Known about the structure:
Structural class: alpha+beta
Strand content: 5-15%
Distance between the termini: 24 Å
Low-confidence stretches: 1-16, 566-574
Number of domains: 2
Number of strands: 7
Order of helices and strands: EEHHHHHHHHHHHHHHHHEHHHEEHHEE
Strand order of the largest sheet: 2-1-3-4-5-7-6
Amino acid sequence: MKRLLAGKTQLSHPSGETADAVMTSKLLFRLLPIQILLAAIGAVNGIVSSLFASNAVGTQAMSAVGLYNPINLFIVAISMMLVGGASILCGKYMGKNETDKMQNVFSLSILIALAVSAVFTLIILLMGIFDLSGFLTGEPAIRKLLDQYLIGQSIGVIPLVLGSLLSAFLSLENRTRRTTAASLVYILVNVLFNFLFVQVLRMEALGLSLASSLGLWIFFLIQAQYFLSGKSSFRISWKHLHWKETGSIVRIGIPGAANNGYQTIRGLIVNMLITQFVGAAGLSAFAAANTLLGLVWAIPTGMLNVSRMLISISVGEEDRQTLADTMRNAVRRFIPLMCIVCAIVIALAVPLTRLYYRDPSEPVYMMTVWGFRILPLCMPLAIFRMVLSCYGQTMDRNIMVNVLEAVDGFVSVCAFTALLIPALGMNSVYIANVLNGVVSVLYLLGYSIIRNRKFPKNMEELMVIPPDFGVSASERMDLTVRSMEEVVNISREVQEFCLEKGIEKRRSYFAGLFIEEMAGNVVSHGFIKDRRSHSADLRVVHKDGMIILRIKDDCIPFDPAERRKIFNPDGIAKNIGIRMVYSITDDISYQNILGLNVLTIRI
């Protein structure tokens, strides 16, 4: 067993990372697959629709799908605002163990999502019925298909927004299996509905959008059933809502959603430039490349989602170490992984293009090939921007984040495209996206240099974590136990730390006793419940004259408060340790956060 004490770092894992960093990494990669799957749902819908559009309806239907993308981006932006704001706030309140505020945010976000999505449903439906889509295209044949597509898409707005929100809350509850099931069912029914409506019934663009919308309703209802069953720790309460939190949800969520909002404007401008300088073939190529790459974009989006959960909870707990570890994982693991994925996509540019267009002599063919060769290059850069932007949101750095989202989502791409398209044609759009990623990274680096007044030398300086956030290394001690043999030394270690910080002998003794008892309980009961290897991360913090003990483990959910209620007259020694801890201190709390047991004791 190793520890971090008095600012001296001693490693507790063969890889050179602290045990808390290792647990953070394991948690991120455990949550990552389902978050990628969730992010891929929209992409799968787009791919299925585009394949049926290009192969069963025609190139004009593909143009209609592409023209709807800016509208869809705007709806997704609203959804992202609610998901980002609500999940970050709930994560903070989970970290602070403020359950009532957490439930209030959940209820408010559901109500807002329902109201906003209902308004968008009506607007899009009226656009399709009364042929109000003229501002998107002037070509009569494409406009007719777009009107049909709008009518069908309007039916799916409500489940799209609400389903995204429920997915985020299910992740916070560590109920990802239900979301996985809902996602797989959605993908299956989407394909079946497209085959029925488009291939069999020949409903053209209306069939494309109806298949997507009906699939989204099934996705939403599967998730909603869990919240209606009463098993969820998140519950809707329409009474005693604190509406002031609405402003917090919107304020925190807007920067992340603003990027999609800016992309809506960007999409309209870029589409206009492509139409003027390249033509319909360019629109079709861009739509095909973007649609299929949407599936690849699910990977960085999933990486962002798991990082957001950990960042928000770490900020609520004022856990400086985990906050920096989350960003380190993005740089050291997520970005290299994304580089490998992008290399594979670039190598497969021609086969991917042939899914849509098979005649190399047509201009649209090579335009699409170059889309697959160039666009992936911006994805690794995007991970860096997305995670740092999410951290900025959580820390209320609104000016920095809003400027970043404006530059990344709108200014750079439009400026570079307008500058390059007369000379480079369609490739200018792809190159502009890569240059945009470079500009965003330079902006974040410049922000760090200005705030620190020097070049950042470590992750905490790069993130500009405030000096007064959490506690310094000298005011905390991190320990890791993997066996009962290591537990027996804990009491003395903790007592020595407390005495060094000026804590009186009685509290120092109880601090050592409490953490030894509770850690021993984790090892003796939690470690043997399955065949997986486990470790318990223990943290002792000295702050404002108080000692805070935190025990975090990845075993099965276990609330010591429930165990201490068990009293057997024939075995009075059973659970005596847990009962003793609860009898001496009332300030003790337990949460299961993202599948981790977190026990906090304040002395």
